[in-house]
Amino acid sequence: MQIKELGHVVLYVRSLKRSADFYRDVLGFKELFREGPAAAFSSGRTHHELLLIEVGGEIKSEKVIGPGLYHIGFKMGDGHEAIEEVWKELREKEVTIVGTGDHTITHSIYILDPDGNELELYADMGDEWKKNPQAIMSKTKPLHLRN
């Protein structure tokens, strides 16, 4: 297994407007869209390099959700076969897997690092996001992987 690139960062933020305006106006990220509680940004290298999700200061579940890092995404390759290979290796190495998802534009496996930080290992499933940036917000479907 080899990480190909850092894919994207997703941050929970207290105020979407304040944070989105900062990343767009101060840091110069191109804003792809801002809708509901989320805003997506890219420098043009990939479908999204930064996604902000507004959570305010409230607890949304038993896990405390507040401003800060949600997960870090690492691109592992292209196509479903690439994520199948990652799945196999993760299971062989007994890595803690906390979830999977078919996000239409990516197939993803979510794991925990030794400190409990969540990491997304993903493979791109084409380039529809180039024609339709909204595709990154497609409803997550179950990801079918071989045992």
Describe the structure concisely for a colleague.
By secondary structure, this protein is α+β, with helices and mostly antiparallel strands. The protein has one domain (5-137): 2,3-Dihydroxybiphenyl 1,2-Dioxygenase, domain 1 (Roll), CATH 3.10.180.
Structural features, described:
By secondary structure, the chain is α+β, with helices and mostly antiparallel strands. It has one domain (about 5-135): 2,3-Dihydroxybiphenyl 1,2-Dioxygenase, domain 1. The protein has 3 helices and 8 strands, in the order E-H-E-E-E-E-H-E-E-E-H. It has helices at about 15-25, 80-90, 130; strands spanning about 5-15, 30-35, 40, 50-55, 70-80, 95-100, 105-110, 120-125. Strands 2-3-4-1-5-8-7-6 form an 8-stranded mixed beta sheet, covered by helices on one side. The longest helix has 13 residues, at about 80-90. The radius of gyration is 15 Å and the shape is globular. About 20% of the residues are buried.
Topology summary:
Blueprint: E1 5-13, H1 16-26, E2 30-35, E3 38-42, E4 50-54, E5 68-78, H2 80-92, E6 97-102, E7 106-112, E8 118-124, H3 128-131
Parallel strand pairs: 1-4, 5-8
Antiparallel strand pairs: 1-5, 2-3, 3-4, 6-7, 7-8
CATH superfamily: 2,3-Dihydroxybiphenyl 1,2-Dioxygenase, domain 1
Taken in chain order, the helices and strands follow as: EHEEEEHEEEH
Largest sheet: 8 strands, mixed
Under CATH, the topology is which?
2,3-Dihydroxybiphenyl 1,2-Dioxygenase, domain 1
Radius of gyration: 15 Å
- Assign an overall shape: globular
> Based on the structure given, which CATH architecture is correct?
Roll
Tell me the structural class.
alpha+beta
First-residue to last-residue Cα separation = 18 Å
Assembly status: single chain
Mean pLDDT over the full residue set: 89
- The main sheet orders its strands as 2-3-4-1-5-8-7-6
**Which strand-content bin applies to the residues?**
35-45%
- Please report the total strand number as a whole number: 8
- Helix residue percentage: 10-25%
**Poorly predicted segments:** none
CATH class: Alpha Beta
Number of helices: 3
Tally of structural domains: 1
